[in-house]
UniProtKB/TrEMBL annotation:
Catalyzes the ATP-dependent phosphorylation of thiamine-monophosphate (TMP) to form thiamine-pyrophosphate (TPP), the active form of vitamin B1. The keyword Oxidoreductase does not apply. Pathway: Cofactor biosynthesis; thiamine diphosphate biosynthesis; thiamine diphosphate from thiamine phosphate: step 1/1. It is an enzyme of class 2 (transferase). It catalyses: thiamine phosphate + ATP = thiamine diphosphate + ADP. Keywords: ATP-binding, Kinase, Magnesium, Metal-binding, Nucleotide-binding, Thiamine biosynthesis, Transferase. The gene is thiL. Residues 2-91 form the PurM-like N-terminal domain. Mg(2+) 4 binds at D28. This is Thiamine-monophosphate kinase. The lineage of its organism: Bacteria, Bacillati, Actinomycetota, Actinomycetes, Streptosporangiales. Reaction mechanism of ThiL seems to utilize a direct, inline transfer of the gamma-phosphate of ATP to TMP rather than a phosphorylated enzyme intermediate.
Length: 266
């Protein structure tokens, strides 16, 4: 995470950044069906960084790790012109094979767990300079500052027989496109099945935007998207939003989806 690209110190506290940096990497472990165990941190900071900000950052690392019973195992630090954070996360598969992106086959279903659209809606509110005194708008901004990945749903999906899975870091369309490509299939999404949470809907109303766009293309919520055999009975933590068919790419309501989500070099 690079200051000015992935976070702004005038928008997010050191604590926010620490929790977010840990969360986005711990979510990758959960997305392979593993239980996170620890992180190591590479940190570059300016010489004039306030010590209180650094203390808050490390508190954020520790508190996010505590959510999943993991710990900060160590790392390294150097002087840098900007705050730069590199996190490596480790986890335990419990003897299972990892769930990758390449196991989807026609006839299976696509489901999501966790929140979608919060981070993109919160960022849009911050960029627009909208006062967020209203509870729902404040919840959207909080979702941008501190994502809440559904960590337990990763190992749960593996136990249920998920054949492909990843966390939604760059947008649902973009990330499911990775599954479709790796598996050699097409994914058909039903937008009517996607839930629009109240904070995302409120932000859309405030900004005159379609909240579905944030749900489909917004990243950094680190929800989980997985593919399951059709006969698997999914618990309430998983919402079926589409199906796998023969073909390629991702289609929404029967139409091919164009480039959507975050691509660093597009």
């Amino acid at each position: 995470m690079i200051e000015g690209r992935h976070f702004r110190r005038d928008w997010s506290s050191g604590y926010d950044v620490g929790r977010k940096a840990a969360a986005q990497n711990l979510a990758d472990i959960a997305a392979m069906g593993a239980v996170p165990t620890s992180i190591v941190v590479g940190l570059g900071i300016p010489a004039d960084l306030p010590l209180a900000w650094l203390d808050a950052l490390t508190d954020g690392f520790g508190d996010e790790c505590a959510v999943v019973g993991a710990s900060v195992a160590g790392g390294d630090i150097t002087r840098c012109e900007l705050v730069v954070i590199g996190v490596t996360a480790l986890g335990d598969l419990g003897g299972r094979a990892p769930v990758t992106r390449s196991g989807a086959r026609p006839g299976q279903v696509v489901a999501v767990a966790g929140r979608l659209g919060y981070s993109a809606a919160g960022q849009a509110l911050l960029e627009a300079g909208v006062p967020v005194a209203a509870d729902e708008l404040a919840r959207a901004v909080a979702g941008h500052r501190q994502p809440r990945p559904p960590y337990a749903c990763g190992p749960e999906a593996a136990r249920l027989g998920a054949v492909a899975m990843l966390d939604v870091s760059d947008g649902l369309l973009q990330d499911l496109g990775h599954v479709a490509k790796a598996s050699g299939v097409r994914i058909e999404l039903d937008p009517r099945a996607l839930e629009v949470a109240e904070p995302v809907a409120a932000a859309g109303k405030e900004l005159g935007a379609d909240p579905l766009d944030w749900i489909l293309t917004g990243g950094e919520d680190h929800a989980l998207a997985a593919v399951f055999p059709a006969q698997v009975a999914l618990p309430p933590s998983w919402l079926v939003v589409g199906r796998v068919v023969a073909g390629e790419g991702v289609h929404v309501a029967g139409r091919a989806a164009g480039p959507g989500g975050w691509d660093h070099f597009r």
